Amino acid sequence: MKSAESYVKxxxxxxxxxxxxxxxxxxxxxxxxxxxxxxxxxQFVRAHPQYSHSRIYGxxxxxxxxxxxxxxxxxxxxxxxxxxxxxxRATARSLFDESTWARLPESLxxxxxxxxxxxxxxxxxxxxxxxxxxxxxxRHFTWQDPYFDEQAWNETIEEVDALFHRIPIRQAxxxxxxxxxxxxxxxxTIALACFESPGPAKATEx
Length: 206
Known about the structure:
Layout: E1 12-13, H1 19-22, H2 25-36, E2 39-40, H3 41-47, H4 53-65, E3 69-76, E4 84-90, E5 94-95, H5 98-103, H6 106-130, H7 150-181
Parallel strand pairs: 1-5
Antiparallel strand pairs: 2-4, 3-4
Helix pairs in contact: 2-6, 3-4
């Protein structure tokens, strides 16, 4: 019998041409939604009325061309009143390997990081509003700002990366158990970050 790990796809490391997909915070938000469920342009606009239909349609087209999302099905009738909607879902989550990330302009790196951070803030806000963020007494929500040397930095990054790559394996293992137990699945948000902080503010003389 195959282990759950054998069914988990390795992360898709993207090329520079796909950096454009994640350089726009709206596209990052679309990918975040489509990683959770299949959606149409109309559904996305209904959930995020601050965006126009034409603008979101353009972003969907761009993401489809860049193979970040894929067409799933067409639905008609019901609330669509006879209209037909195309539903899409995100393909495997895309990641930048270190060499590709290093080649990106700093301005593009900043936009991508800001877009990912924006979707995380939205998720925290949703969990706060729904009252789920503090429901479990064993939940973990902290941050620290130690001073490291190169060895401590490298060791910590390796540990963070190891946990990141373990998460989809745990998800597959959980799916196997859920299929047998009929237990209610637990939606979980896991945020991992490790970055160099700015140094302490310098004292100024008046």
